[in-house]
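call fold(seq) -> tokens
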Amino acid sequence: MDLMFDISGLTSDEEEFSSSKKDVLKYLKMIGVDTRFISYTPQKIYINNLRFSKFSRTREKTFKKKYPEIDVVRNKLFQKICYKSSKVLSDEIKPESVILMPKDNFMVELLLEPYTRKYGVKLVYGGVHDLKVNPLILDDEVNNIFEGIFKGEGLNLTKGDNEIYPLINVSIDWINSFLEMDNQELLDCENKDELAISFSEFLQDVAPQYRENVLTAAEFVDLKNKKLKAEK
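ret:
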């Protein structure tokens, strides 16, 4: 529960806060919100982690008095997506990295935006970079694995060097459910292999959590194979 607070003494009457990203984030910090755990857009503030952001209802009311035109999104599904994504990104992103972003991918934009404050990274859309975002989703990677097996190619893991995968642990159902609630354009799977898709649909009916297990098993086997080759 929030302690009652008065921010009137924190700013002078003459101080103005514009609608710029810098000022919005400055004001959020001033009222006690940890901006490392929110995603900023000019129209909406998305809460990534309710507990760590400290973005309580009381603070939201204070924020809305200053910025009534900016919505605060408390979407539990989005928070779950952020949690799954953070398990990958926290291991792969280094402080002050320059990250090449995909164009026109709203979901990836939301997930990576807080890392400009968490780790001081710079998000770019061309030129020199340290890491590249690959927007591969869980469904596509699992279908890639099945496709490779059915075609006799072995494990078909698509992970490349110097790439990060914010959506690799997130299903398209979760992503599109959130995007639909937020009135955003939906995504589609890239892998169109009919046999892989049919097998995925069959497994979905009998074991809804199979995708993460398939990916974990495939990565384990791939790592074992690489170690055996290195020892020869």
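The longest helix spans residues 210-231.
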